[in-house]
Amino acid sequence: MKSDMRLFAPFPIEMDEHPKIMPLSDAAFRALFEATFYSRRMLSDGFLDERVVLKRWGQEVADELSTNDPEKPSWIKVDGGWMIQDFDRRWMRRPAIPPEVRILVFDRDRWACVHCASPAALTIDHIVPWSKGGLHEETNFQTLCRRCNSRKGVHPNA
């Protein structure tokens, strides 16, 4: 199975105007992005090894990102390195559904929406949402048309 080698790290569009981001030096701003992608690529859950930080970005940048906010700095100094603030809460993203699994789900559901039986604009959806702990595997996928999928949504009290 060929894996998807793209990295996804959502940054809010207004991030550059955030009070703790605006005063950052260019080097620290760049390090914040690079460190996020580095951590995603290395699957380090936001941990940045001290040797890597010092070699790639230097002590001055690490100090700047560790002190850019008194309550929630971008990086938190920990034993052996730094942690990216709230990395586990903000950066976890599910992997893409492999094409062969998509075909298996479509075949199982007879190439029709399981809610309305439409064969048009089919999508794959999690039965138990990923955001609520649903598994990212074939048994938790269902075929929905775009219309039914957009109506379903994620309801906080569901």
Give me some keywords for this one.
single chain, 158 residues, alpha+beta, DNA Binding (I), subunit A, two-stranded antiparallel ribbon, 34% helix
Protein model, in words:
This protein has helices at 26-42, 50-56, 58-66, 87-90, 99-108, 146-152; strands spanning 47-49, 75-78, 81-84, 122-126, 141-145. Helix 1 (26-42) packs across helix 3 (58-66). The strands form two sheets. Strands 1-3-2 form a three-stranded antiparallel beta sheet. A two-stranded antiparallel sheet has the order 4-5. A hairpin with a 2-residue loop joins strand 2 (75-78) and strand 3 (81-84). The protein is elongated and about 60 Å long. The longest helix is centred in the N-terminal third of the chain and has 17 residues, at 26-42. It is α+β, with helices and mostly antiparallel strands. Helices cover 34% and strands 13% of the residues. It has two domains: 15-90; 99-152, DNA Binding (I), subunit A, CATH 1.10.30.50. The model is unreliable at 154-158 (pLDDT under 50). It has six helices and five strands.
Question: What is the helix tally?
Answer: 6
Q: Rg, please? A: 20 Å
Q: Which stretches of 5+ consecutive residues score pLDDT under 50?
A: 154-158
What number of domains? Answer: 2
Shape: elongated
**Kindly, what is the distance between the CA atoms of the first and last residues, rounded to a whole number of angstroms?**
35 Å
Classify the beta-strand content into a percent band. 5-15%
- Could you give a short account of the major beta sheet? 3 strands, antiparallel
The percentage helix is 25-40%
DSSP summary, beta strand count:
5
Mean pLDDT score: 83
Helix/strand structural class: alpha+beta
